[in-house]
Amino acid sequence: MLKPAATDIDALRVIEERLRWLSAWTIHHANHVRDSADGLKVGGHQASCASMTAIMAALYFHALGENDRVAVKPHAGPVLHAIHYLLGSQSREALENFRGFGGAQSYPSRTKDAIPVDFSTGSVGLGVAVTLFASLVQDYLTAHGMLADADRGRFVALIGDAELDEGNIYEALIEGTKHDVRNLWWIIDYNRQSLDATSADRMFERFDEIFRSCGWRVVELRYGRKLQAVLGEHPTLKGWFEALPNAELSALHYQGGAAWRARLDREFAKDAAEFLAGYDDDALATLFSDLGGHCMETLVAAFDAAQDDVPTVFIAWTIKGFGLPFAGHKDNHAGLMNPTQMSALREAMGVREGHEWEPLEAVGDNARPGVEALLEKSGIAREKRERAFGSVAIPAIPAPAGGEQSTQAAFGRILLDLAKAGGELAERIVTTSPDVTVSTNLGAWVNQRGLFRREEMTDVFAQAKIASAQKWGAHNQGQHIELGIAENNLFLMLAAAGLSGDLFGERLFPIGTLYDPFIARGLDALNYACYQDARFILVATPSGITLGPEGGAHQSINPPLIALGQPGLRHYEPAFADELAAMMEEALRLIDDPAGESTYLRLSTRNIAQVERSGDGWREGALAGGYWLRPPGAGAEAAIVAMGAVMPEALAAWEDLREDIPGLGLLAVTSPDLLHRGWTQAQAQRWQGERRRSHIEKLLSELGPNAGLVTIADAAPASLSWLGGVLGQRVAPLGVDRFGQTGNLAELYTAYRLDGAAITEAAAEILLQNG
Ligand SMILES: Cc1ncc(C[n+]2csc(CCOP(=O)(O)OP(=O)(O)O)c2C)c(N)n1
Ligand SMILES: [Mg+2]
Predict the structure, then answer these.
(1) Which of ligand 1's atoms lies nearest the C-alpha of 160?
(2) Does residue 770 carry a pLDDT above 90?
(3) Which atom of ligand 1 is nearest to the CA of 320?
(4) DSSP string, 17-85
(5) Whose atoms come closest to the Cα of 45: which ligand?
(6) 27, 106, 187, 195: which to mutate for ligand 1, most atoms within 8 A of CB?
(7) How far apart are the first and last CA of the chain?
(8) CB of 717 within 8 A of CB of 736?
């Protein structure tokens, strides 16, 4: 690490001004200069950017090394773009098109921005926590011999103080403490303002305690050098300043020097006179604005002093909108400078009209060499890293043997077989679960592969020879990361591990398990994992009212609908073990394929008789979303369309009805998600000149034009009822649209109309309509 010479501090200050100007100008340009096609406000956050420009200048142009990765506070995105613009890795065109179609994104985006973005942010709290899991993945890779020490880095989160209200941060903090996580810097932009207001004073200093009790080093950067020195000489003034409530402090920052003077005069009367005489109004405002997060020496010294691997939180005091006319104003979050204010800022910053986009505009001849040297030697990655795919061969995954099986048990068996067989894929699988490892059938895999811990932990029960099916040694070669019960952490862990190819150049195959209903608990983290194009397999089991005696809200209803609306995540719902084996092979392949995606496998604990197959003609259809388990006769009037665990009811009903309904077919749907996507894509392509029919159109056109469909799934009926829209066939949808309850399977299937009788009634309904 190069220690900065004294002149570097000056150069960093110049860079800070450049970032403050360029971020404000980029937002201003999008709102006030660029032609508006629709007359809508474009938006952007000038105040949130100005709050962090010093922190980001010190970080990016002094502290960061080439292996370090950063999650940037979402609304400071324009500062990140400005940094890359100064480095020459962001184009003026992209900035001119900020928040426009194809332009620089509002919030940093891994997939959509042209600059290297380490983590996509936007939903506050998630970017913070994902850095912790990325650090854990780094330790995992190192322990497994996949990452050299020289390639290790630090994970930095730039955090808005109101982000600290997001509970997922503390869930991550707790998990990180359990895993002795390290190499983290969380830098809080402590401007004491959120979107709506100034922050509540009652949390003041509590954050320190929370972090300290989790073993973090807390570095508070409250004052800049000058203010620190002045307050050091005036203890009474210091006491008064420190007792100012957030709202009053912000108001004074907004009102400026005259208000500080009047206020001090009122508080201290003649005792303040001598002090006040030493400052004009501007100097007074400047003095009280010298908070730690705006003072380059303070920031640089703090970063330099935290070079070990202890996780560190920096609480950097700042002013929201620092240096802008609405600094400190409680309503400044989405505030935009008007053209007059912007011109005044331009002049104050020495930027010539017409030269607003010049990277080093207003940098004087004396300062220029220092600034250029800093830009030159910056260690941060300028180019997007090439994504590495296709590095690992995926072997064929055979179906587990057994006449009766549940898909959940088959999942456990498949992983056990992979663990025993070994090979590169098995070495690169990492499993994780929020305290449901055993109950989602991962236990046998963990017995083989062990829990991951950097420090070995003995299995006390095994040592004491107490009988247990789970023999879980924990060591640094373990391949299961056991999490506490926090589903957000599961998805953040999957996001981090699913980005390991991108972040570290080493592909992992992450498989996470949880109960299907609890997907909802971590939905936003799942959405962000997909948005970043992290690749993983999510195994959700048990699911549906098929869970029987567990009852109530343990019985998931709507996850297939969630999956239907979730980009980047493919839903598969197998009925049989051989389908599951094919899907797991496909899901593993998709992880390592540039055009791939993540996969959600919705499984069940229901033991069902496996079907006899002749050949593997079903396989392609099963992977495409559905296949005829019982093909329809030509011009058939009806078909049963079934998904997952209710397949035995569908098969039995098909046997019962096939004599009465000639040509009756049974369509096994394995992915409503894929069928729907294929359908809409084919429609779009037909208008682009490509004559193509989708898989579901082909399947359903084997029926007669007026055929009816009885759809059935242990899920919300809308998961399949839309199939009627494909060719205009009528639908009688069966499924679950009320909360579940306890009971045995027969009772529940009858009560919720998932049984043979319901299928018969539904078939009669559509056939009567036909007549
Ligand atoms: C999960 C989530 N909820 C709400 C928002 C809308 N939002 C964006 S910024 C913000 C306030 C952020 O305040 P702070 O973190 O202190 O950042 P500052 O702008 O003050 O630096 C809110 C509520 C969001 N982006 N994400
Ligand atoms: Mg804030």
Answers:
(1) 15
(2) no
(3) 20
(4) HHHHHHHHHHHHIIIIIS--SS-------HHHHHTTHHHHHHIIIII--TT-EEE--GGGHHHHHHHHH
(5) 1
(6) 195
(7) 82
(8) yes
Residue 7 pLDDT exceeds 70: no
E strands along 384-444, which residues? 404-405, 429-434
Q: Does 124 sit in the ligand 1 pocket, CB within 6 Å?
A: yes
Supply 523's token pair: 């939905």
In angstroms, what CA-CA distances link 206 with 172, 209, 292, 315, 583?
18, 5, 19, 12, 48
Query: Would you state the pLDDT for residue 361?
Result: 97
Q: Is the pLDDT assigned to residue 497 strictly greater than 80? A: yes
Please report, rounded to a whole number, the percentage of residues in the chain having pLDDT higher than 90: 89
The CA distance from 718 to 561, in Å, is 7
Shortest-distance ligand to the CA of residue 162: 1
Residues whose CB falls within 8 Å of the CB of residue 40, separated by 6 or more in sequence, listed in order: none
Give the residue, out of 53, 75, 130, with the most ligand 1 atoms within 8 A of its beta carbon, to mutate for a pocket test.
75
Task: Give the span between the Cα atoms of 548 and 543, in whole angstroms.
Answer: 10
The most distant pair of C-alpha atoms in the chain lies apart, rounded to whole Å, by: 104
- The answer to which of 260-264, 285-289, 454-458, 496-500 has the lowest mean pLDDT is 454-458
| Ligand minimally distant from the alpha carbon of residue 124 | 1
Per residue in 104-120, pLDDT (tens digit) is 999 999 999 999 999 99
Mean pLDDT of 624-631: 98
Ligand 1 atom closest to 122 (CA): 25
Classify 157 as helix, strand or coil: strand
Taking phi first (over 0 means left), then psi (-120 to 50 degrees means alpha), and beta for anything else, what does residue 614 get? beta
Any atom of ligand 1 within 6 Å of the Cβ of 640: no
Atom 13, ligand 1: residue with shortest CA distance: 194
Residue 245 alpha carbon to ligand 1 centre in Å: 21
Is it the case that residue 385 has pLDDT exceeding 90?
Answer: no
- Do 314 and 302 touch, CB atoms closer than 8 A? yes
Sheet containing strand 636-643, strands side by side = 626-630, 665-669, 636-643, 703-713, 730-734
Residue 65 CA, chain-centre distance (Å), reads 24
pLDDT digits (tens, 9 = 90+) for 707-758: 999 999 999 999 999 999 999 999 999 999 999 999 999 999 999 999 999 9
Q: Whole-model pTM?
A: 0.97
How far is it, in rounded angstroms, from Cα 433 to Cα 663?
A: 45
SS3 call for 193: strand
161 lines ligand 1 (CB under 6 A): yes
Distance in Å, CA 205 to ligand 1 centroid: 21
Rounded CA-CA distance 709/731 in Å is: 5
106 lines ligand 1 (CB under 6 A): no
Tokens 């006899």 found at: 612
CA torsion, points 442, 446, 449, 452, in degrees to nearest 10? 110
For the cut 60, the answer to whether the pLDDT of residue 226 exceeds it is yes
| pLDDT > 80? residue 419 | yes
For 92-108, what is the mean pLDDT?
97
What's the pLDDT at 1?
A: 44
